[in-house]
Amino acid sequence: MTAEETDPTFEGLLTYIKEARGFDFTGYKRPSLIRRIGKRMGSLHIQGYENYLDRLQADPDEFTELFNTIMINVTGFFRDPPVWDHLASEVVPRIVSAKHEHAAIRVWCAGSASGEEAYSIAMLLSEHIGPPAFRDRVKIFATDVDEEALASARHGKYRAKSMEAVPEKLRDTYFRTDGDGLAFAPELRRSIIFGRHDLVQDAPISHTDLILCRNTIMYMNADTQSRVIANLSFSLNEGGFLVLGKSEMLFSKMRTFEPVDIKRRVFVKGRDGDQPVGSGPEEIGGETSTGERLAFDLGPVAQVMIDANGTLSHVNKRARDMLSLRPQDVGKEFERFEFAHRPIDLRAPIEQSQRTGGVIGIPEVASKGPDGRDVTFDIQVVPLVSDEKRLGTIVTFTDVTDLHQLRQDVEHSNRDLAMAMEELQSTNEELETTNEELQSTNEELETTNEELQSTNEELETTNEELQSTNDELETMNEEMSERSLEVAETDRFLNAVVTSVHASVVVLAADLRITLWSGLSEEMWGLAEHEVKGKLLQDLDIGLPMDRIRDQVRGCLMGSDEPDIVVEAVNRRGRSIRCRVSCSRLGSSREQEPDGVVLVIRDESITEET
Fold first, then answer.
1. If exposure means fewest CB atoms within 10 Å of the residue's CB, which of 170, 264, 447, 542 is most exposed?
2. Which fold does the domain 501-609 belong to in CATH?
3. 81-269 homologous superfamily
């Protein structure tokens, strides 16, 4: 190990990650960890593990980036095709053939990342036993420590490019078009359980028939790998298969596994202690009384006696039946018989018992009975000593098959219970994920509802403002209507007044433009009101001497009291007439600018003629 690998600040960083986040990287190979953590520190331009520890403590989100840097999720459908060809042609058929027709098949994909490997083995199993049997019999447990990868795997949706390794027939059978990608068939997806699991810290999933743990333990140190492999061995049923990555290999001390295909890293879990049990005792000989011989011969426990010379001297009936011995075998050398060597070698325990004078116990020795059934014995080796003289050894075989079976049943029940708890935990995790998604959706809907409510309130406010404006407009309209009536009434009154005056009445604005032209003016000068209104008086071509009248009007506008003038004019009929022109100033006071003038033109010729 280098000095950097034993740097206490680096180990302190790993300890903090373990305690703060629950991820134990202390069992991983230091060079790999240092390289990857250094890569993340380099991207942040941070020098020193202490400074990076400060960053982790100050920014909890940084751990996600670090974890994604350490755990490189490299996977794909049917990755390393020769391995999958071997699984399809050899391993899967052997697993299925070893099971009863309706027995469950359990698979564990450890380090499943984004799920491609779990879906790949699901397709192989479904192809071999058919989709209906797959739904009824198969459970695939896909685990990883990366929650983001598991979240992606649970959706089971992949882009077309990542599906290129899937044969077209399998792609058409097991995937459905979903938006811009393909999703695994939902009716088979229910047989695959995704859950978080740490190979180093968490208890293994039990009673599995196949474990895929590819390129997952290669980053761990030797001690951690040994613990993980031991857990994988415990997880597998006898005869179950373990598939490792092409860069991984079992340690030689793991004798529970036997290689099936070294090149493809496929191993099978062997059977421990299934060798047949050896032979045994014969009838009692020697100088003993008949009662003692019968008591020994008919005893409930199988016993054999071996003298100090290693010769078989006594065998009771139960031992003869169990070990297939004959009465004539008494007197022969003990080591000639099979039971001396199998299921265990008894020579060493007998020698130890003779040497120490103590009783040697060997519990739960598995063997085969005379009828071929599996039996389990507790073996005791008892030295025979009289007056410090060693006479021989008695070997006792106590049948504990029922007790052993009961213990196995209890262990089996405990494993089933643990498995049920694991399945329940995975289901709870999926429910939690679903609840989080539903909660997120609900929050989005609540936000949208609040926005809509706010918009509705704004519309109501706008509507109220529009209503208020409309009320004001209606009020103004009513006022305008009233004023229009008043103006019309005033106009009628003014017209009545003007009409009652027997003279030509002309009202001029301050700029000398005509604003009123009475009916008598039309009669006298031959021009209608609409022809003259808005025109300058001096621009009219009528029979009035405009020069004198213009001077009178200007003086009136200046505020002087202009006297009436008498002018000679010509009316519309071309008749000469004498007119008296009176000019009055329009305005409430002389201090104000005048609004105009009023000209009253009377035809005095009519008066004279009268």
1. 447
2. Beta-Lactamase (3.30.450)
3. Vaccinia Virus protein VP39 (3.40.50.150)
Instruction: Determine contact, residues 368/375, Cβ cutoff 8 Å.
Output: yes
**pLDDT, tens only, 394-447:** 888 887 888 878 877 888 888 888 778 767 766 765 676 666 667 767 777 877
**Residue 499 near residue 588, CB atoms below 8 Å:** no
Residue ranges per structural domain of the chain: 8-70, 81-269, 305-386, 501-609
Alpha carbon 455 to its chain centroid, in Å, reads 32
Tokens of 49: 């593990």
- pLDDT for the residue 157: 92
Q: Give residue 288's pLDDT.
A: 46
CATH of span 305-386:
3.30.450
Q: Judge whether 297 and 283 are in contact, CB under 8 Å.
A: yes
pTM higher than 0.70, yes or no?
no
Could you check whether the bond before residue 167 is cis, i.e. omega within 30 degrees of 0?
Answer: no
CB 507 within 8 A of CB 585: no
Per CATH, 305-386 and 501-609 having the same topology is answered: yes
Q: What is the pLDDT of residue 86?
A: 94
Binning the chain into helix, strand and coil, the percentages to the nearest 5 are 50, 20, 30
Q: Which of 114, 107, 111, 119 is nearest to 78 (CA)?
A: 119
Q: Which portions of the chain are predicted below pLDDT 50?
A: 1-5, 252-253, 272-288, 610
Compute the chain's Rg from CA coordinates.
58
Name the class of domain 8-70: mainly alpha
Task: Check: CB of residue 238 under 8 Å from CB of residue 271.
Answer: yes
Alpha helices in 156-201 (DSSP H): 168-174, 186-189
User: Amino acid identity, residue 431?
Assistant: L
> In the 3-class helix/strand/coil scheme, how is 384-408 assigned residue by residue?
EEECCEEEEEEEEEEECHHHHHHHH
